[in-house]
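input
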Amino acid sequence: VVLRKRQIDLSLVPLRDPLAPNPQTGRLVAPHGLIGQSFDGDNIAIDGKKDHYRELWWRQTSFKANEITTEAQAEGAIEGFADDYKVADFYATDFKYRRFNAVEAAPRNVATLTGAKRVTSPGSQYDWKKSKGGTSGDDSPDKAG
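output
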């Protein structure tokens, strides 16, 4: 049996307006977390730090290995750092920017983010109503199944 690593590509779409007030309380709890914060309704796309795989491959392995370790963690596009989002275990909800059980919480402040910013227009592919938050891989699908 040959075991191969697989990449999982995800797309997430809100089931309702993520910036609509809670119907029971009338208060807003804006989404957060590594993906949720992208649904902040400001029509600004922010590009964080990205890896350059060829440079990593050379620096880490001198082009000799089949595997590299990514280093970029979206710095500049997320509040804080990736370590701020770590939880103690699989079911934990406690982390620096948690919104679990919050009564009220405003969207992130994009003015504090250092990534490259692009203004988008409502209805564009970057509008939360049309876009999907998530990730898409750079590997090709396995044709053999």
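quick obs: Helices lie at 33-36, 53-61.
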